Amino acid sequence: MTLNTAPLAHGGASEARVRIALKAVWVVIATTGVVQIANALQTDLLSVRAGIEQFPAWTIGFVMSSYYVGYSIGPLVGRTVVSRLGHVATLMATTACAAVVIAIHAFLISPLAWALLRIASGLALALFYTAVESWIHDRVGNAARGRVFATYMLVQMVSMTLAQWLLSVGNPAHAGPFLLACVLFASAMALPLAGRGHAPHRAPPEPFGLDRLFRVSPLGATVTVLSGISWSVIFTFGPVYAQRSGFNLRTTSLYIAMAMIGGAVMQFPLGWLSDHWGRRPTLVFMSAAALASAFFGFWADRNGVLSKEIASFLLGAFVFTLYAISAARTNDFIETKNRVAAAAGLVLLFGLGSIAGPLLSGAAVSFLGTGGYFIVLATVMSASLASAIFSR
Prior knowledge:
Layout: H1 15-52, H2 57-85, H3 87-105, H4 111-139, H5 142-169, H6 176-187, H7 210-216, H8 218-244, H9 249-277, H10 279-300, H11 305-319, H12 322-331, H13 339-368, H14 371-390
Helix pairs in contact: 1-4, 1-5, 1-6, 1-8, 2-3, 2-4, 2-8, 2-13, 3-4, 3-6, 5-9, 7-8, 8-9, 8-12, 8-13, 8-14, 9-10, 9-11, 10-11, 10-12, 10-14, 12-13, 13-14
């Protein structure tokens, strides 16, 4: 999953300009909404089903991190794929691939098989997001980009929250929920056809070299990697933590939904704060708040369900919004003509960081118990806070 990679325009865009921009990209935003429901549902299903199958925590971490291996390959080959197939065909082909892959998961229960399937799923969805975001960048001007990406972000958060409800009404021990995710992916295939007239006619540019991103904005690039780690910790191991804490399926889905709601609620306020207060002070505040939330979660681990749900909301509020601000910080130092290329590079950095999240969580939970989940988050957020204070 990717977020806003351009700072919000100061003064805002006119409502008419935003409406025109949304008309050109509503199809890909709607398609992303459906795909993100399916993607969030499949992630939750695999985490919970792995627990039902009694996979060790480190094995779950290995399986879940495999998705981000494929996801990190996407930005490297995305330009070639999109230039050959076109944006519409790329969106249709990648959603079809994702549908087939999640269906296979339901009938082939094996950590190694799941890891390989997760790589395929990550690659397919990385190509999907490359096509989506290059479409948006190509069709939306700078004056409207902030609001359009805020809409794009909000749709994703709402979709991820809806996925938690779908998790709660199915039984992950059976094939039904997996096939539901398959149907959701497949249903997204037809939507891009409605936007053929607005599809770009040029391929996305090659991503920035990673060394170039770190030279341009060490702070933005570093926090982007750390936000990938922390995002993937919550997204993949949040359900595992809830399950091992004794939550039933309904309260597990509520636990993850609280994190999604926190991210959705705080997206606009923190974006506004970064525009008016500055990126660095906002990143310092967010990293400190996320660190405090992780400590609160560690305390809540030994207390009631309500305190755990509050901790999930707070972590989602400050972790799921971190990437947008770190990416905006990077874009503050990048010329407008290079922003699409920089966006692809930032997606790659985020994906590389995300590989580590499930691996670290799996090891921590294996050796330290459920509290290890919060120790990993606290460690990553400590690094983020240090970067925000000391990096350029």
